[in-house]
Amino acid sequence: MPKLAIVCIDDEDMVLESLKEQLKRPFGKDYYIEVAESSEDALEILEELQADNIEVALIISDQIMPGMKGDELLIQVHSRYPKTLKVLLTGQASVEAVGNAVNRANLYRYIAKPWDETDLFLTVTEALRRYSQDQQLTEKIRSFSELTTTWKS
After folding, report:
1. Minimal CA–CA distance to 50: which of 16, 8, 81?
2. What is the pLDDT of residue 81?
3. Domain extent at residue 42
4. Which of 5, 39, 43, 59 could, after both became Cys, cross-link 68 (CB 3.0–4.6 A)?
């Protein structure tokens, strides 16, 4: 199984530090925790992780940032990395932006700022469980397909 990562994106340093700290305690042993201050930086980090054979299981992104907004980032991430689960974490997202992320980026969850640490923990735990189950199912389907091909030969 490849190494896995969680990537957090927010233009506010205090928010990123808080997210990183709250995620490292329960998940840092099993997942890389990466942070980016912009959508553009996040896309670079995703490419670097992929080059290092590290899969991004989960992205947690703010909506309101300079440059590319969070929903736009999540749409790009979905087109490049469709298996990655996406969470929008923001206090200022419009209904249109959230709808855009849900419909075009397959948004997994929306969490309002300021967030509750327990809610964040439960959301991330459930997202990582779902990601793992999806990966296991994909592997079983691949194995079954190989067996079927071998059996038909």
Report:
1. 81
2. 96
3. 3-152
4. 39
